[in-house]
Design a protein that fits this description.
CATH superfamily: MFS general substrate transporter like domains
CATH topology: Growth Hormone, Chain: A
Largest sheet: none
Number of domains: 1
Shape: globular
Order of helices and strands: HHHHHHHHHHHHHHHH
Number of helices: 16
Structural class: mainly alpha
Helix content: over 70%
Strand content: under 5%
Oligomer: single chain
């Protein structure tokens, strides 16, 4: 295991820097949009651009990698991302900023695809599960610590944009210096949403809901915290608390879902997330410390939903469909993520900052009703479960590692059964 980690350390470092820069940029743009006088609705429109770009990148970035190779593609994506961040300070315009966020999202999808496919190629069947866990920890740490980077400068000035651009540029160095062999690019067939829905309706609806919720939190969470009365340091602490707590309950809840009916555990987790969202609304009228503590509770529970619904889909899918299922779930997630910040912004403009978590509670209420309906409609079957595995819940994973681990684990189970 130590040899494997050593061989991919530079790739993981590049990934961590990518998430660090992305976390910093998301909170910076949320705050800066309000400082520039953008309305809540306009801010939501701007922040949705990143997730639109992620969706497009998930569909088409592989073509760029296939055309020029992993190293050149990564360098190109990182350079474009660096320029896109700096371009925000050249001209303040909501439409331009939306376009820049689309470009940034596309570039991020391409860079993450390069890192994940490369890491997956270097991991062995014996170490891949451990590598995935380390990868997800870096995912959350990078995104969470990026929220704290806002404290090193004034969001009203231009310096933070320069620092974010520098972080993306530094992300180039480790991957360009690695001795790891670049893998052959692959672009799996995407499963149509209708076919995926036939395999697991809960999985598809749950993934769309997760896309809406996670993108809303990442895009509009800073706006919520600022409008709730927190200063810049408080906004940074709140967002970092929400994201960093995301890894806390994944393994305990995952083990429960492996032992019991996955849908029942999903039902309980979704109900707990809705209640946690209401707690955040209540805490927005309390002290900053209480609000941040409520953010920890919400993030810890909320980010377990995506891996639960992903595992539910893989429970129902055949082993030879796992790659197509992962690609289909990316589309479902991207659809939800593209509209989440826009809907959240509309509600926040209508009823105040609490509108963000009203949307989250309402989305989970819809999911809860649907899960109950499906439990009564289809009883738990005798088919063996796919293993629960942690997932990054910030919308920038290509799921390549996840799919590879599932294939390996399912094959091991098949061999044991013979």
């Amino acid at each position: 295991m130590r040899a494997t980690i050593k061989s991919i350390a530079s790739l993981l470092l590049s990934h961590g820097l990518l998430l660090l820069g992305n976390g910093m940029t998301s909170i910076l743009l949320g705050l800066r949009s309000r400082l520039e006088g953008f309305s809540t609705e306009t801010t939501g429109f701007v922040m949705a651009g990143f997730f639109v770009g992620l969706l497009v990148g998930a569909l088409y970035a592989a073509r760029v990698v296939a055309a020029v190779g992993h190293i050149r593609a990564f360098a190109a994506f990182a350079s474009v991302m660096s320029v896109a961040v700096l371009a925000h300070v050249l001209y303040v315009d909501a439409v331009l900023w939306f376009g820049l966020r689309v470009v940034a999202g596309f570039s991020m999808a391409g860079m993450v695809m390069v890192v994940e496919s490369w890491v997956n190629e270097r991991a062995t069947n014996q170490t891949r599960g451990q590598v995935l866990s380390l990868y997800m920890i870096i995912n959350y740490l990078g995104a969470g610590l990026g929220q704290l980077m806002i404290l090193i400068g004034d969001p009203a000035q231009f310096q933070l944009f320069i620092i974010a651009s520098m972080v993306y540029s530094f992300a180039l160095v480790p991957i360009l210096m690695t001795r790891a062999t670049a893998p052959t690019p692959s672009s799996p067939r995407r499963m149509p949403i209708r076919e995926l829905f036939g395999i697991s309706p809960i999985g598809v609806l749950g993934t769309v809901c997760c896309g809406m919720i996670n993108s809303s939190v990442n895009g509009m969470g800073a706006v919520f915290a600022r409008d709730a009365g927190l200063n810049v340091a408080g906004v940074s602490a709140f967002m970092a608390a929400v994201i960093l707590s995301g890894i806390a309950f994944q393994f305990p809840i995952g083990r429960l879902s492996d032992r019991f009916d996955r849908r029942t555990v999903l039902l309980a987790a979704s109900l707990a997330t809705a209640l946690a969202a209401l707690t955040v609304i209540w805490a927005s009228g309390q002290s900053a410390l209480i609000l941040i503590a409520s953010g920890v509770l919400f993030g810890g529970i909320s980010f377990t939903i995506l891996p639960l619904v992903s595992a539910q889909v893989n429970d129902r899918a055949e082993r030879d469909q796992l790659v197509q299922v992962a690609a289909g779930l990316l589309i479902a997630y991207g659809i939800g993520a593209s509209i989440g910040p826009v809907v959240a912004a509309q509600l926040m403009a209508l009823i105040g900052p609490a509108g963000l978590f009203v949307l989250i509670a309402g989305t989970h209420a819809t999911l809860i009703v649907f899960v109950i309906f499906r439990i009564f409609q289809r009883r738990r079957g005798a088919k063996a479960k796919a293993p629960f595995l942690p997932l990054g819940s910030i919308g920038v994973s290509s799921k390549e590692l996840y799919t590879a681990v599932l294939n390996k684990t399912e094959q091991s189970n098949s061999d044991q059964a013979k």
